[in-house]
Write the structure tokens for this entry.
Amino acid sequence: MNRILFLMTFSFLCLITACQDAPQSKDEASSAKMENKPAAETKTLVADSKTVSADKEEAVQEKTENVKPTSIEEDIQFIRDKYAIIRKATHYKTVPFKAQCDERTMVKLDRKYNEKGELSYLQYHDCGGHGCSTKHHYYWEGELIFIFHVNDYSPGSTHIIEEHRTYFKNGKMFRCLEKKAHYYEGQAPMAELLKKASNDEVDCTPEKRTKNLSELEDLDIGKAKDYFCNF
């Protein structure tokens, strides 16, 4: 009897020992491996992950900062601001010219230069038999930014005024407006009609530019009369 109990106890102890010596599962081994990884190596992996994330964020921010679209309204406001500065300036150097070509034709050319010697304003005024055409050109840092063109003429017993506004950016037209008032006898005064007239947006065509403007910008005043009266 004692021998049987001894054999049963011995077998039971061998079974327990075999279970304790069994190899760890794959997951347990992997987990243990991670736990035993040196702390410095773990910190490096985390730092690298943060660096990649930061680089991506910086790239997105840089891309956003580089894209700064300028709306037409902002371009118009820029021109208005520079227009006001030029109009109010009293220290610009003025180079005027005026010539009476014949009984009906009169030409006037005014150019103004800022303190840097840059052309800031050019007016070309031309009168004929039925009326006058006046073009005001405004420049900023050597670039044409705005033309205000007025046709004022009186065919027969009527009076017509046409206003053309042409806006430029980087040498290109980007907005063109037209206003027209037609006075007949018995109507409200022209000034009132013009005030009520709407500024209509129209296509920007080559005709909106002043013909031979580059020649007017550089014209020698000593040769101006021959240029205008014998052109």
Remarks:
- Residues 1-7, 12-67 have pLDDT under 50 and may be disordered.
